[in-house]
Amino acid sequence: MFSLCYLPTAGRLTITIIKARNLKAMDITGASDPYVKVSLMCEGRRLKKRKTSTKRNTLNPVYNEAIVFDVPPENIDQISLLIAVMDYDRVGHNEVIGVCRVGNEAESLGRDHWNEMLTYPRKPIAHWHPLIEGPPQLPDLDPIARLGRGGTRDSHHECTANRSGSHERLYSQYTK
Ligand SMILES: [Ca+2]
């Protein structure tokens, strides 16, 4: 479950990772060590990524952590967020537990949630999202992300979102 909130005047997009439940067990302990990685995507390219803290040995982690990206209003239609729940492993590679996407080009709930955020600016809107099991390199392989808006690659639609990076912050211990 996560909330989305957009401040058009400040050009600030906030995603608050609230919690997850019934995650897949990835470790022999019968649990996982989940953290959430959020990628700011523009036409298939990853502009920024941020992650939450790692919760050890649980399938029902609670985060309440906000991640902020700078996205000017003129770029908001080209942006999507790829949310990946990952299992931390002390030895070896961290594995993908599942992913979901929100944005103009996302499907069903991912697009509905995004549109609801744009309809009600300055208001955090939270929803549960189902995770799909994706390959680790999903951002590069996803044909939907590569198409861009309307399936064209117009050079005038440059991704300028979050170029300065001065306002991006990760609040741990964020409270409602
Ligand atoms: Ca693990």
TrEMBL record:
Keyword Iron: no
InterPro entries: C2_dom, C2_domain_sf, Synaptotagmin
Keyword Repeat found: yes
Swiss-Prot/TrEMBL keywords: Repeat
Domain C2, residue spans: 1-129
Region: Disordered, residue numbers: 148-176
Gene3D superfamilies xref list: C2 domain
CDD domains xref list: C2B_Synaptotagmin-3-5-6-9-10
Skewed-composition ranges (Basic and acidic residues): 151-170
Pfam families noted in UniProt: C2 (PF00168)
Family per record: Belongs to the synaptotagmin family.
Protein name: Synaptotagmin-9
Species of the source: Ataeniobius toweri
